[in-house]
Amino acid sequence: MNNNNETARRAYWTEQMEQGYAMVEMYFMRESLTHDVVAIGRAMNERGWALQIEDCFRTLEMQRQLGRKPAVFDTILKKCIWELGGAIPMPELMFRRAIVLTANMPKIGAHMSSSAIDISVWRRDDGTEVWRGYPYLEMSECTPMRSPFVAPEFIENRLTITGLMEKHGFLHFPFEFWHYDKDDAAMHIVIGNPTPCRFGAVNWDPRTNEVTPVENPTVLLNPLPVIEQEIAAALERARS
Q: DSSP E strands: which ranges in 3-155?
């Protein structure tokens, strides 16, 4: 069999299986936050909208793999190359960009605290998305909540959704228009609250429902040597 054909078949298989997994995947969050999310969903229903949760709790390993996932890492790398006018970024720059977009540290990664949700919103009458200028997940200069490169009507949609979320205590992450979290380190950083936060990064065993705090929440999930290796791998993928 032709190697190129085999590679294409393998890529197609992986893509389809991942899409299928996304359809049946369950999302988990802290029980104390579900009441707020249900209230938000009802408020959106009253507007003729439907809340769609895109992601919630992630284990440390899930977050680590997300940061190295080719579809994600390659996108961030391309934006860094664009940012530098075509030059290949040093690992330190990739680290700075990736820690914002893929939370490379448990302490600041609200998904690992099970205190964050990524969302999309749809209209109930016709099934169309309440458009925010770009789909989940967009990684570009249009990703920040108030990006000046997004049309005003879509910024208005973002802020209307944000108003509903924040009415129930969830704070928007300024650099991603789909991400909201509550009572965690990320929230305290954004609002400048120096007091200890309620929620921190945890390990959760779904078999026993045991929850334990992450022992070293400031340890990098993907340190600089790993990022350097991933840059080389991404550049090789681009050449292939």
A: 49-55, 116-123
